[in-house]
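hey can u check if this looks right to u? its 79 residues, i copy pasted from the old doc so theres a chance i mangled smth
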Amino acid sequence: MNVTAMKHKPQAHRFDPEILREYDIRGQVGKNLSADDAHALGLAFGTMIRRRGGRHVCVGYDGRHTSPDLRAAIIEGLT
């Protein structure tokens, strides 16, 4: 592999294992959940949807002040 290709190879994201649950992800923004986590989730979910033929995803959020930043990060990952 050449050096140029290595520069663009995405690094594996490491989640705090405490936030990963069987059916959801729960964390506290600024403590163990970040925009980087949201981006990685968007990337992974978007890849899964695309591979299965999907083209559309709906992103929602609640009224917490951190929601818009997490929303933006997950959308960036999705796209």
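The chain has one domain: 17-78.
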